[in-house]
Design brief:
With about 110 residues, the protein is an all-alpha fold. Helix content is about 80%, strand content about 0%. The radius of gyration is 14 Å and the shape is globular.
Amino acid sequence: MSDAMIDKLEAALAAGQDSALVRFSLGEVCYREGQIAKACAHLQKAVDYNPQYSAAWKMLGRARAANEQPAEARDAFEQGIAIAQQRGDKQAEREMNVFLARISKQMTGDE
């Protein structure tokens, strides 16, 4: 099922239907499928298209953490938290704060 979704979303890209939503969706599916580097690339494009997309910042942070890029993950979470605060997206803000705390502990060795 996920391979079919990836194919469908990649076909949309090939047809010129590139957008933050398509990139976010593709990044999320790639992340679930363990295609972490690919997920990072698509999620970065999603926030490039729409810097106010707090859900994309959250997924980008998670993907970067899974891709063993803790500093980049921290940056994504920090940017996402700022966006979520501006937009009043309290749930996304809370979730990213949890992820930020985890990645910060990993970076300082306080696991």
